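User: Could you check the structure of this?
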Amino acid sequence: MITRGGPLWLPLTILLVLAALSFWIERMVEIPANGSSSPTRTDPEGIMENFDAMRTDVTGKPQYRLSAKRLKHYSGSKLTEMESPRFTQMDAQSGDVVAVAKQATVSSDGHEVDLVGNVAVERAARPGQSAMTLRSARLLVFPDRNQLRSPGPVEIQDATLNARADAMEYDAKRRVVKLTGRVHARYISGKG
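Assistant: Sure, the predicted C-alpha cells are below.
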C-alpha cells in the first residue's frame, strides 16, 4: 500500500469533473424529432461530432475543457458514450492535468465513468512537483465515492516514482493508493 496520495488526487478531481460534465451534456442533448417512441441501445438519441465544451469560473477564466471526436447519448439506457475523449483541467497554480482514452462511457446516473483503451492521465510539472503520468487499459471512476479503480495493469510514473501493478484502487477521501497483484515500485531519490 502506498500512501502517497498527493500526486494522484488531481487525476481523480479531473475525472469527477468529467463525470459532472458528461451529466450536463446528457441534459443538453435534444430528443430526436423522428417520432421513434422506443429507441434502442443501437439507436442513439443524439450524436455530436467534434464535440468541444469549456467550463469557466464566474470571472470567465477557463477551468475545464472536454472534447471528443464523437459523443452519443442513448435514451433507452441513458448512457453517454464518447469516442476519443480528452479532458483538460486548466490551472496555472497547480498545473494542467489531461486525461485521454479511446472511449468513455458515463452511466445513466453519472455514478460511474468507464474510460477504456490507452487511458492516460498526465499532470504537468510545476515548481516543486514533477510531471506525473498514470497509464492503464481501463480506468473506472466513481465520483460519488471519490474512488478510482484500474481492474487491470496500471503504471504510475513521475520523477521520483515508477510503479507498476496488476490492479489499483485509489480512495481520495483517505488519500490511499492500493496497488495489488504483482507490484513493482522504484523510488528515485532526488538527493545525491
